[in-house]
Design brief:
Layout (H helix, E strand, L loop, with lengths): L2 H34 L3 H4 L14 H7 L2 H34 L5 H10 L5 H14 L6 H26 L2 H9 L4 H12 L1 H17 L2 H6 L8 H6 L13 H21 L1 H11 L4
């Protein structure tokens, strides 16, 4: 077998593997879309119908008539936006100190920050529950904003540290010569240059806060305080009545809350990859 034939076979196998991976990733979302527009009679029909014969938008209309779901959308937007802004504000300052200054213990601190992202949420749930109760934040959105920072802030610090390390030191030195303080050099010189990293980490923090389920389920009690993952988990028909699980409406709600994240990810995909690559660089 010649070299050209081996290359052709290798290319075919590569694209076949790529197609399998693509189908594996996309099919769950496709099935959610299919289920969201299928009548109830076709949801579990046999044989399986991969596209409904009588597509309908009734499930979407019912979802947007559900007051609890609308409240959950608002709550998720408030919590995710607040967590993102707080993570960027505090994380940028921490990353600036770790990335631009040399001090004893800097490297252990940096890896300690990274290690905080490795703890499973369930491991700290009990302590956080006690803290939330002591602060009087139970069933308040502030509880989610406070606890979500536990996993968004360390990631933000770690990624932004690499961005600040990559910036030329001459810029900072020129600012000091002109009489700028370290904070002035940070806000006026380095922070605008680190904007791509800020966008990357901000988007990833927003997605993590938007999709979080365990803390939202543990710290929120009433329907008007739920976020979208919990609202979908506890979904009830907009028309009320009975104990039948409204699968079609749940799938429609899932599509509604997923599409904005997909759009944002596609728009900023290059910056996300750049941020993840930068975050892997050792300080």
């Amino acid at each position: 077998m010649g070299t050209a034939s081996r290359r052709t076979i290798g290319s075919i196998l590569f694209y076949l593997l790529l197609a399998v991976i693509l189908v594996y990733i996309i099919f769950p979302f496709y099935w959610a879309v299919r289920s969201s527009i299928a009548p109830n009679s076709e949801l579990f029909a046999t044989p399986v119908q991969y596209w409904p014969s009588h597509a309908t938008l009734a499930n979407y209309r019912l979802v947007f008539q559900n007051a609890d779901f609308i409240d959950a959308l608002r709550n998720s937007a408030i919590v995710a936006t607040s967590v993102t802004l707080a993570s960027l504000a505090v994380g940028a300052l921490g990353a600036y100190a770790l990335g631009r200054f040399s001090f004893r213990g800097r490297r252990p601190v940096l890896y300690l920050v990274l290690s905080m992202t490795m703890f499973p949420q369930i491991a700290v749930l009990g302590a956080l529950y006690d803290m939330v109760n002591r602060f009087g934040l139970y069933n308040r959105l502030g509880a989610l904003i406070l606890t979500y920072l536990i996993f968004t802030l360390p990631f933000t610090v770690w990624v932004l540290t690499s961005f600040f390390q990559a910036l030329p030191h001459e810029l900072e030195e020129a600012a000091y010569v002109d009489g700028a303080s370290p904070l002035q050099a940070f806000y006026q010189i380095l922070l605008p240059l680190a904007a791509p990293g800020m966008v990357t980490t901000g988007l990833l923090a927003f997605i993590a806060a938007w999709n979080e389920f365990l803390f939202a389920l543990s710290f929120m009690q009433t329907p008007d305080k739920r976020t979208v993952p919990v609202a979908i988990f506890t979904f009830t028909p907009a028309t009320g009545g009975g104990f039948e699980i409204p699968w079609g409406q749940m799938m429609a709600a899932t599509v509604v809350v997923t599409v904005p994240l997909i759009v944002l990810t596609l728009i900023f995909q290059r910056r996300i990859l750049a941020g993840l690559t930068a975050g892997a660089v050792k300080g």
